[in-house]
Amino acid sequence: MNLEATVADLAQRLEAVERRARAAEDHLAIANLQRMYGYYVDKSQWEHVADLFARDAVLEINGRGRFIGHERIREYMRHFGPPKDGLLMNHMQLQPVIHVDADGMHGYGRLRALMMVGQMGDHAMWGEAIYENAYVKEDGLWKISKLKAYQVFYTPYDKGWAKEVSPLLSEFGDFPPDEPIDPYPVYPEYFCPPYHYRNPVSGRE
């Protein structure tokens, strides 16, 4: 192999390594973005939560409807009010499966949230949700472009999912969505939120 061919080969290898490095960095950035979302929700830091969303983002949580655009999402977050003593809102972000498009500008994530929600002296709930989210690199930063949280269950902590569960949480009475969404089954009914990816072995959806 002559010098010119060797240099061309090395340049191709370097470009491939750089693509893999960028993909790894994007994967980590998206995972950290989603984890930060959980920590901010935990402490009712709604302005921080809203800052994580893209300008044209879409938010869907449980059966509350679809909220479109950054400012509407900020209004949604503010609807929950400031933090207060005795409030527990833990949203643990678990089992992330993340994919990034070859363009390095769009990503997708599936993960679950295990929730401990309640107010001391009033109520306490266990909950679980499955997220199927999309992400976009906007102004050089990864942001949430679509957050879709499928309710799996909510149950009183002292009874558990073997005895009592809540129906799908519906729209806020005093804060209507931009668009309604179709209801879907929640536990104990069987329902599997659609995956954003195919089976990596069989290729089946």
From TrEMBL:
<dbReference type="InterPro" id="IPR037401">
    <property type="entry name" value="SnoaL-like"/>
</dbReference>
<dbReference type="InterPro" id="IPR032710">
    <property type="entry name" value="NTF2-like_dom_sf"/>
</dbReference>
<protein>
    <submittedName>
        <fullName>Nuclear transport factor 2 family protein</fullName>
    </submittedName>
</protein>
<dbReference type="Pfam" id="PF13577">
    <property type="entry name" value="SnoaL_4"/>
</dbReference>
<feature type="domain" description="SnoaL-like">
    <location>
        <begin position="23"/>
        <end position="147"/>
    </location>
</feature>
<keyword id="KW-0175">Coiled coil</keyword>
<feature type="coiled-coil region">
    <location>
        <begin position="7"/>
        <end position="34"/>
    </location>
</feature>
